[in-house]
Each structure stands twice: as structure tokens, then as C-alpha cells.
Amino acid sequence: MYYREYSPHPALAAHIACVWAAQAPGGAHVHRVLPDNCVDILWQDNGQSGFAVGMMSAAILVASERPVRTLAVRFKPGMAGAFLHTPMQEITDQRADIDLLWGHSDADRLADALWTSEAPLRARLALIERELLRRLRAASALPAGAATLVQRALATLDDSGGEVRIEALAAALGVSRQHLAAQFRQHVGLSPKLFARICRFRQATAAIKVAPAPDWAQLALACGYFDQSHLIHDFQEFSGSAPERFHFSNQTDA
Asked: What is the distance between the alpha carbons of residues 61 and 45, in angstroms, rounded to a whole number?
């Protein structure tokens, strides 16, 4: 499977992690996508509308019967709402057609431009960036308090690798845990606790990919887990397999 990421336009860098392109082979290919604490919008050359994929709380299996080309944008946590204009918890573990979120006219115009163009991949991705820049300029800003609260919380969780306790985080921000959770669900799509768990899970999957023979107990502690059983629980919930099986499949695919 071909996959390549590109840095976003500088004016979008605060909101977007990357734009990317991929091509999946045909022949009943199945690709597993893990939770990554991000929201993506994808456009594919299969004649269907572009669609947003909300925050994920579990792995999904994406099957393709024929080669499918994809052009996409990946938002930084908490940033997709300014472009999608919908409470983010409404699309958690869901996909939402862009023509319903943006209107058929704008969505169809962009899709036609992407797939009728003979321009190089990066130039077609620039068409997506141009539309996002237009929407960013037209978007009404979040209330300053909500934006600051959510971004400060996200920065703390990312910097700690998901190890900070949510009670301590809420106290440091001067709000109740319930208020923080409500803001997180609206602007991020997950609860702070679930976001933190996926942060730890991502650290663990990254460590496994470069470890030929992991010491599971030590890896659990290094990634902020209380013990190995908590690591196993998260792997089963987020990837659908035990850590040993996940590690074996990654070593086999490498």
C-alpha cells in the first residue's frame, strides 16, 4: 500500500497535522486503522462523496476490492471543529459525508477538481488546502475561554504522554472534571480520560515497532501504565488483539 504525508500550508499548520495521499491495492486487501486521536477528511476516486472520519475509540478494518486512491487531510486534536461545524462527539466512531457538512455544491466542486485534474499529487492536495483556508477565514471563532481551556488541556495530555490524572488536570485548569469533559467531548470528540488512554496506547505501539523482544512489564511502566494487565486491556480494546499478537503481526509485516 502506497502512503505519503506532506507538511500542510503554513497558514494551516496550527490546525492540521498533515495532508496525505494513499493508494490501496485491489484483491480483497484489508488494512487495520488504529485510534490516533485525530480526525481526517478523505476523498477517494470511487465516485462517492468525501467523508470525515471522527475520533476513534477502537481499531477499524478497511477493506478494498479494487485499487482505491485517497487524498486526505489530518487535523490536530481539537482543531477539526472549525472546519466541520459540528459537535465533534456526534461523529466519534462514525464517518460523515462532507456534502452533508459543507453542502453539495462546495463538496461536489472540490471532488470534481481533485479527480479530473492531471496535476501531481501535491498540487491536488493544495486544492484541499485552499478550500480549508477559505473555510478557516469564514469560520466563527470558538469562544476564547473554550478554545484556551481545550488547547491547554490537550497540550498537557500530549506532553505527559497521557500520564497526568484528569482530576489533577481539571484542578490545574481551574474547572471541574465535568466541565472539562463536556468541553472535550464537544471540541475533541472523546473524554479526556479516553484521549489520555489512547496517548499511552500510541506510545506503546510505537515502542513495540522498534523492539525485537519487548519486556512487556517494563514497556507498560515506560508508557505510563500502572501494570502489564492495564497494557493488555488497552491493546485488546484499541487494536482488537493482545500485545504479543500485535507485535508479531508488525514484525511479520515489516
From this structure: 19
Q: Residue 52 forms beta bridges with which residues?
A: 41, 96
User: Regarding the domain delimited by 2-138, which CATH topology (the fold level of the hierarchy) does it fall under?
Assistant: Jelly Rolls (2.60.120)
**Cα diameter, the chain:** 54
Is the distance from CB of 192 to CB of 211 less than 8 angstroms? no
Domain 144-253 adopts which CATH fold?
Answer: Arc Repressor Mutant, subunit A (1.10.10)
DSSP state of 91: G
CA angle 232, 237, 241 (to 5 degrees): 65
* Alpha-carbon span 184 to 187, nearest angstrom: 5
Query: Are the C-beta atoms of 193 and 169 separated by less than 8 Å?
Result: no
145-184: per-residue pLDDT in tens? 667 899 999 999 999 999 999 999 999 999 999 999 999 9
For the chain, the structural domain boundaries read 2-138, 144-253
Cell of 47: 465516485
Domain 2-138 identical in fold to domain 144-253:
no
Using alpha carbons only, what angle is made at residue 170 by residues 87 and 234, rounded to the nearest 5 degrees? 70
